[in-house]
Design goal:
CATH topology: Metallo-beta-lactamase, Chain A
Helix content: 10-25%
Number of strands: 14
Order of helices and strands: EEEHEEHEEEEEHEHEHEE
Number of domains: 1
CATH architecture: 4-Layer Sandwich
Distance between the termini: 13 Å
Strand content: 15-25%
Bound molecules: zinc ion
Amino acid sequence: MRVELWGTRGSLPAPGTETTRYGGNTSSVLVVGSEGEHILLDAGTGIRPLGLALPEDIARLDILVTHLHMDHLQGLGFFPPLFGHHVEVHIWGPPSTTMSLHRRLSRYLSPPLFPVRLRDMPRRPELHDARPYFRVGSIRVRADRICHPGGTVGYRLTDPNGSCLAYLPDHEPALGQRHFPAAREWTSGFDLARHADLLIHDAQYTDEEYPDHVGWGHTSVSQLAALASLAEARQLMPFHHDPSHDDEQLDAMTAVVAERAPSVTLLPGREGSRLELAPA
Ligand SMILES: [Zn+2]
Ligand SMILES: [Zn+2]
């Protein structure tokens, strides 16, 4: 499968001269399956340009949303395929026992926050709860709850050629653990990340910043290195960069992860990156 990064920032877009290399758009990743499936992971601000670049002849798009925080949804109202392309759009999101996905998405996609209601969009999307196992074309998807406020899932996508991508952009696996990592079976996200050919994962905080942000739902660079090593991921891409971190600081944080997880191949999480994922 092919993986393209269209937005790697967390929490809030961060455009500007200091973020040109890692990018300022929020979480948006395109996955193109080996049989032509087009899957978007999250709908941050990067899906606006992503939507403009999609080929016009695709018949179906699937957007897999990890959770309903704004940085993962904000691009939806500006996603060109919802305004006229002749493409079928499916949106998958974490299930809730109290409110449907339509109602939760409509909190943003309705006045006064947004002028157009979800149901009035020219290309009204079909909505689905992300069950623990489902398929998009030939891609097998696993969705599992992970530790982050507000009902959040991570995704694991397996292509029929055997390549496997794990996507956990917002995740605090160390929360409540005296020593991290704990045993595999007690570590949030372990099953999703295990032996992934590529793990795209939260890397919001430096080790110095984390103690002031315990419970905010994110990972420090040392915790990221520990989790990736525990899960024996083959390649690791730090993601969901804090909006206050400029390119130089992100270079330094990437270097810390590389040093602490020497067995994992590190790929910088930069907007505009593309890679072909093949099985090991
Ligand atoms: Zn986020
Ligand atoms: Zn979040």
